[in-house]
Amino acid sequence: MSATLASIADHLDSLAVVGAGLFAGAALYITIGETPALQDFGLDEHWRFFPHMYKRAAISQSVFSAIGGIAAIAHGTRINGSSFDRNLWIIAGTTLIGMAPYTIFLMLPTNNTIINDNKETTLGKESQISVTQRKKILQKWAGLHLGRTITSVASFSAMVFGLSRHSSLLLGW
Q: Cα-atom radius of gyration of the chain, to the nearest Å?
């Protein structure tokens, strides 16, 4: 293995923790800061703001989960002699990458409902979603996002715990 690749491989754990930390931190901020503040601001404002927030968050969250998850799995495959530590990193990485299908299959239909209704109203059409339905849809989204937050914080925490055990690990490749 070249010196450059060896250097990258030696820092996969740090890369994984940074990616997972950024993902979990952003998810936590959205869950405990942004969403409650928007709820206090008012239903219409929250509804109209959602597409703008989603467009920006989706890109960064996709990148953070991919980098963190792939680096964690790759790091886990390098660990020799400790199946606990190897499995810890692989499971944490897989869980972080699992945010993509969770988002696509569970959250995207709700996201698209909000985004498409906003597109219609931007074009001057009247919303087809009642105020009561909007509130329920945003509450459903908040619950789904809480699932992402809890899972990503758990994955990040597992990686930080894995780092605390790092000095005793035998790394291969």
A: 19
The CA distances from residue 149 to 20, 27, 78, 142, in Å, are 11, 5, 28, 10
**96 Cα distance to chain centroid:** 7
pLDDT in tens, 65-94: 999 999 999 999 999 888 999 999 999 999
On whether the CB atoms of residues 91 and 16 are closer than 8 A, the answer is: no
Please check whether residue 172 lies inside any domain of the structure: no
* Domain enclosing residue 32, as ranges: 3-167
Euclidean distance between CA atoms 137 and 69, whole angstroms? 29
The length of the chain in residues reads 173
Overall domain count for the chain: 1
DSSP lists the bridge partners of residue 171 as 79
For 125, other C-beta atoms within 10 Å of its C-beta total 10
Question: What is the per-residue pLDDT for 6?
Answer: 65
